[in-house]
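FW: tagging you since you asked about this chain on Friday. Here's the raw sequence from the shared folder, copied in full. Didn't touch anything.
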Amino acid sequence: MSRKLRRLAIPFFLLALGAALIGYYTRPEPVPVTLWKVAHDTVEATVANTRAGTISACQRAKLAPATPGQVERLPVREGDRVKAGQILLEIWNEDLEANARLAASEIEAARARAEETCLMSELAQREAQRLLQLQKRGLVSEETVDRAVADARGRAASCRAARTAVQVATDRLDAARAQIARTILRAPFDGVVAEVNTELGEYVTPSPPGIPTPPAVDLIDDSCLYVTAPIDEVDAAAIRAGMPARVTLDALPGREFHGKVRRVAPYVVDREKQARTVDVEVVFGNPQAIEHLLVGYSADVEIVLQTKENVLRVPTEAVLQGPRVLVYRPDTGRIEERVIKTGLANWEFTEVESGLEAGELVVLSVQREGVEPGAYAEPEQPAGGR
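HL: got it, structure written out here
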């Protein structure tokens, strides 16, 4: 190179170097971004309850005696576990017991009378038969025979009446025992006594029709629990019995219980100032997992409508209207916009049918100031994803 050319090249080199230094030091500061590495995994379409659901027992009975009276026995306390048929409460019933004993005595007396009457009937029958034989030989008058036959028939009727009296007395005893049974409150199933609202010596009465009163004993079968949750009427249309579901509880944060839909209510609940909802019942899949759950806990359910495995997915929070995402390019350090085609989605993940490739980095912090297409970015932590 001639000396003249070298003299001309030096200024151009210095000018280019200066421009590069100016561009470097005056370029905008990169915005910190949170990234997610696009990968294949499972995506589910789900729906969730609009308001908190409630854990209920498959069997719960708010019990009261069928007849009013004074409490004479109260062998259970709150928290006791009882078996089906076990006595929970007994009303004073000595008068009814006396009536039952009287009915039992009347049965014995009626049986004795029936035995006597029927023996006399058999005797009259034999006498009538004997006289009929004698009449054939002309040894007795027709009048005597007619009188004997009529007496035999009358005594046979008396025998039937006496046996009917025995049955009447037996029925009277059954009625007395039924009255006694109405004074005894028994457990209709195995369970735990949740509440007792009476004391020994107190007078209790059954609830009048249409007027609810506190039960004498509240019994819960806590071996079988389910969740009732209100689902928006729009979402409820896609729910069917047998669909898998997940249950979470405010009382047990971090735990997730698996179950399935048992029932979808056949009607819509219209509450004032609230959306129309449909009650959905979810039963737990593992009976051992619910041992320490309490009836009345608030619960949230997430029902899985559809599942796709091994599909390309991104966090739903990264998807903008369009639908589109912001992608970070490590080779340029810039953010670029990408239009995508989405498939199955829920609040957590969205399936990407086209527009992205596995391994690309999408921006999660899309609402952060300065995060826009063309901006320089700096990952603030290792990219998430699997």
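FW: The mean pLDDT is 87.
HL: agreed, and The CA atoms of residues 114 and 162 lie 4 Å apart.
FW: great, closing this out.
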